[in-house]
Every structure is written in structure tokens, then in C-alpha cells.
Design brief:
Radius of gyration: 18 Å
Number of strands: 0
Number of domains: 1
Shape: elongated
Distance between the termini: 37 Å
Structural class: mainly alpha
Order of helices and strands: HHHH
Helix content: over 70%
Strand content: under 5%
């Protein structure tokens, strides 16, 4: 019991947090593979856009309880949107540069956020190393 006679609050990695981590990991891997195939000329832009839409939908269906994971979710969503804009621009013979620049900046921001919160999250049972 705490000093006020109430039990202390114990923070844990909730199943919704773990669901977000898995969903983010799987979608980043799938989009990475689709992007590699696109860059090699083995797939069309529409397939990468479909993969991006699937990733956005999957992330929208997660509700992490941890504030740092919620922030990461928002940053990843913005990253996927910018990447999708880059693929659309490229498919219409426009420069994708500004969108790629933003997507990579957002990816770095998400990475830095997770690195900073890695220790506290690990203490609560959330392993974010698959996202790093």
C-alpha cells in the first residue's frame, strides 16, 4: 500500500501495447519488402500503395495504452502516408524527393523516440527492439 493507504499503480505492458508492437513490426517488414521489389522493378507502384494502405489500416486498428507507443503510432502513420505520397508521385513521373525526405525524417524520429523509451518500456515488459 502507498502512503495514502491505496495500492500503488503498477504499469505493465498491456496486450494492446504488444499488439501495436507486432503490427508495426509486421507492416514495416512487409512495406520494406514491397519497396525493395518496387525498386528492383519486380512489382508495380499500385502494389506498394496497397501495402501502405494495409499498413495504415492495421495501425489504425491498434490502441496502445503506453503514451510513447501512442506517439510512435502517430509518427509511423505519418511516415507511411509520406511514403505513399512518394510512390504516387513517382508513378505519375513527379519527383518523390520531398516525400521521401519527410518519410525518412519521420522514421528517424520514431526510432529516436523508441530508443529513448526502450529502457522504461522494457521495465514494463514491452520489448520494442523489433522496431529498432
Amino acid at each position: 500500500m502507498g502512503p495514502t493507504g491505496q495500492a500503488g499503480i503498477v504499469h505493465t505492458c498491456y496486450p494492446v501495447d504488444k499488439q501495436f508492437i507486432v503490427a508495426a513490426q509486421l507492416n514495416m517488414m512487409a512495406l520494406g519488402e514491397a519497396s525493395d521489389d518496387y525498386l528492383r522493378g519486380n512489382t508495380k507502384s499500385a502494389e506498394v500503395i496497397d501495402e501502405t494502405n494495409a499498413a495504415l489500416k492495421d495501425l489504425a486498428n491498434t490502441r496502445p495504452a503506453d503514451p510513447s507507443l501512442t506517439r510512435t503510432k502517430l509518427v509511423l502513420r505519418a511516415m507511411f502516408v509520406e511514403y505513399q505520397k512518394a510512390i504516387l508521385a513517382e508513378s505519375h513521373h513527379h519527383s518523390p524527393g520531398q516525400h521521401i525526405f519527410r518519410a525518412y525524417g519521420l522514421a528517424n524520429f520514431a526510432h529516436d523516440l523508441l530508443v529513448r523509451e526502450r529502457g522504461p518500456l522494457a521495465k514494463r515488459g514491452c520489448d520494442v527492439s523489433p522496431l529498432l
